Amino acid sequence: MLETGLRQAKNFGSQFKDQLTSVPGIFAAGDICGPPWQVAKAVGEGCVAGINAADYAKKLHPTL
């Protein structure tokens, strides 16, 4: 996707475990993660992605 090095999944499934993508520090949520395309699912994935992104940032910069 663009010049980030992200690869778009052809077959939806476990490639977004913990909302991780193929690029360290980039997390995915919502329609990009696949069906079912529902707001409630996207909200839940967004929460997981946000928590995991914060944990990732804290590991890189423990003073955050």
From TrEMBL:
<dbReference type="InterPro" id="IPR040131">
    <property type="entry name" value="MnmG_N"/>
</dbReference>
<feature type="domain" description="MnmG N-terminal">
    <location>
        <begin position="20"/>
        <end position="59"/>
    </location>
</feature>
<keyword id="KW-0274">FAD</keyword>
<dbReference type="InterPro" id="IPR036188">
    <property type="entry name" value="FAD/NAD-bd_sf"/>
</dbReference>
<protein>
    <recommendedName>
        <fullName>MnmG N-terminal domain-containing protein</fullName>
    </recommendedName>
</protein>
<dbReference type="Pfam" id="PF01134">
    <property type="entry name" value="GIDA"/>
</dbReference>
<keyword id="KW-0285">Flavoprotein</keyword>
